[in-house]
Prior knowledge:
- By secondary structure, this protein is mainly alpha-helical.
- It has helices spanning 10-23, 50-63.
Amino acid sequence: MGGPQCRVGSHRQFVLLARALAATGYPVLRFDHRGIGDSDGEPRRFDELDDDLRAALDALHAEVPRCGAR
């Protein structure tokens, strides 16, 4: 099972990559589930993230409809 991870070390590189891609116009989703990173709320286990993931993807699709093509 995965678990909480912070924005240091190799994970910091993913933040920098996401920012660089976004600056060139690519849609980027950086996901912090409840209670982790910049998100409020009680942390959840990795296998309890369905609602959080769905909300994040719905928000991305609303902002960038071409990302919602299925």
